[in-house]
Amino acid sequence: MAKIFCVANQKGGVGKTTTAVNLAAGLAKIGQRVLMVDLDPQGNATMGSGVDKRKLQHTVYDVLLESASIAEARVVSERLKEAGCSYDILGANRDLAGAEVELVAVDRRETRLKEALAKVDGEYDFILIDCPPALSLLTLNGLCAAHGVIVPMQCEYFALEGLSDLVNTIKQVHANLNRDLEIIGLLRVMFDPRITLQQQVSEQLKSHFGDKVFNTVIPRNVRLAEAPSYGLPGLAFDPGARGSQSFVEFANEMVERLGGARPGTGARPAAK
Ligand code: ADP
Ligand code: MG
After folding, report:
1. What separation in Å is there between the alpha carbon of 262 and the centre of ligand 2?
2. Is the entire prediction scored with pTM above 0.90?
3. Would you state the pLDDT for residue 160?
4. Which of 31, 32, 37, 246 is the most buried (most CB within 10 A)?
5. Cβ–Cβ < 8 Å for 148, 183
6. Residue partners of 251: CB distance under 8 A and separation at least 6
7. Is any atom of ligand 1 closer than 6 Å to the C-beta of 13?
8. Which residue owns the Cα nearest ligand 1 atom 20?
9. DSSP 142-198
10. Pairing assessment for the beta strands 3-7 and 126-130 based on DSSP bridges
């Protein structure tokens, strides 16, 4: 059964999507079978995986509204295949913004994604969910479906303050909806060691959260920022870049932390 992780932080522009697509690519590169679920109506993770969000026949919207299954809606990206780090993608586009409203009126509204994932989780080692920048019903679907949350954060002055809302939400979901849910770890991203404040906040994070802070640090790296405009994760766009390498390191740390998720066999599920 797959390990299911949300990449979440209610702030926008903190590196959620960059983390989701590059971790997916990194895990794929070391032989793990990965499904990436784009839960953000902006569809950045979809486009950033080489999939045109405007051309999708089905998206995660159809899955949430139960008009398509994940097996019907997932796609693969030829460009990721060429780069040797292919993962399956359950894409999103603007349709998903409507789901927020439409879901309010339906039953089992927080657990739609969880139920849909249960039908395919035997086909993957990891399922990564890229959440929107809000603690919304969409994010709630992600949190209800997941075993854990990966929180990317920049080491800035308000970082800890912003974290408390997310931590409280995770506690509430844990208490009321999903006893499995835990924070897997905080990932320091866009890190610049030359900036003293970032070093200080990084130390603060470690003393506050201990081993919940991942050892891997993702540096600020221009190749990671350029990659989305080429429709690829940095790791596929420029595998040698420092930022890309840090995500391979992060993928390995994730596998190690989980106490040896199954070693990759190279076998992949067939997406339609
Ligand atoms: P979110 O999904 O949280 O809104 P993104 O992953 O889209 O955040 O990142 C926000 C912006 O920062 C994007 O333009 C992205 O390319 C850039 N970015 C993210 N991580 C890095 C990094 N490590 N180095 C440089 N730029 C980055
Ligand atoms: Mg995003």
Report:
1. 29
2. yes
3. 80
4. 37
5. yes
6. 23, 26, 27, 29, 30, 32
7. yes
8. 15
9. HHHH-SEEEEEE---TTHHHHHHHHHHHHHHHHHHT-TT-EEEEEEEEEE-TT-HHH
10. parallel
Q: What's the token pair of residue 134? A: 């809000």
- Give tens-digit pLDDT for 12-48: 999 999 999 999 999 999 999 999 999 999 999 999 9
The pLDDT of residue 260: 62
Q: What is the CA radius of gyration of the chain?
A: 17
Mean pLDDT across 76-93: 96
Residue 14 CA, ligand 1 centroid: distance in Å: 6
Residue 181 · residue 148 · CB < 8 Å: yes
What span, in angstroms and rounded, lies between the C-alpha atoms of 246 and 60? 29
Tell me the average pLDDT across 67-83: 97
Domains of the chain: 3-257 (3.40.50.300)
- Cα separations (Å) of 268 from 35, 51, 112, 186, 257? 10, 18, 25, 29, 23
- The DSSP-derived string for 67-79 is SS-HHHH-B--HH
ipTM for this model? 0.99
